[in-house]
Amino acid sequence: MMDEFERQSLYNCRHEFYDNVDSDKFVQKLHNHGVLSESQRQKIQRCKSNREKMANVLQTVSFGNQDCYQNIVSIMKEEYPMIANKMELELLKERTSNSRDVNESLIEIINEQLLPIVYGKGKSNEEDFSSKRPHSSVSRLSELIRQLQLRCLRILNVKPSEARNTALPVLINRKIKEQQEVVRQLKEEINEIKSPKKKNQSLHEELDEINLAEKIYQLRKELQDQHERVRLLQLSVHSKESTVLDLKTENAIIQNEIQELRKQRPLGKLQVNLLFDD
């Protein structure tokens, strides 16, 4: 199908066709070259004036196949080379104008929308593409989109490999949910700390720890006192054992003396009370 640039170029040359081209001959040639069908040719021939026929021709061929425009140019070169040249110039102008418009639109999108998102608003960030071709603007646009994507992933703490085939809004929504869960947990912890039950529980735990420490201190003190009493008892036992040993020694001496007295003075029965027995 004839594209929009070719249709516009044909429309721009319509007055040249109206004023200079014999519609009957032109229709026949279009039919001979397969541009017009027999039914189309007959329909056009039913028109009365040359202008009406030509307007009908141009309207009909505007919806022809993709080779239609070049076929018309070739036909026009045979008898109307100036009109053919104008058709080619008009087509080139339309395509060039469209490229320029697209480039200007890309520049506007880059400077007014994309650069402020990537770098922040500021005239120092604007770039001049006036002397560049559209492909330069497209390349810059692609580069900025890539930078924006990498910055978003870095802020979201997501690796590019993990974000493959995943839309950016989905990643942002996922991160928001993760942060909301963190906030919820923090709020629960804060509420638990502020709640009277938690305070009382903490206070009881602290009191229990204090009481336990006091009990441990008292037990340690009692244990030290017991150790001291044992030590004193051990000293007392040792002292008593020493006294008993001394008494036994003295008793043995006394018994020896009594035996000596018995040997020296036998008096019948001598009553002696012994302090200790062996």
H-E string: HHHHHHHHHH
Which sheet architecture does the biggest sheet show? none
Distance between the termini: 145 Å
- The beta-strand count equals 0
Overall, the morphology is rod-shaped
Low-confidence spans: pLDDT under 50, at least 5 residues?
267-272
Judged by helices, strands and strand pairing, the structural class is: mainly alpha
Arithmetic mean of pLDDT:
79
**Total of DSSP H or I helical runs spanning 4+ residues:** 10
Strand content: under 5%
Measured as a percent range, the helix fraction is: over 70%
Roughly how many Å is the radius of gyration?
60 Å
Topology, element by element:
Elements: H1 4-12, H2 14-20, H3 23-32, H4 38-45, H5 50-61, H6 68-79, H7 81-119, H8 134-156, H9 168-194, H10 196-264
Helix pairs in contact: 1-7, 2-5, 3-4, 6-7, 7-8, 8-9
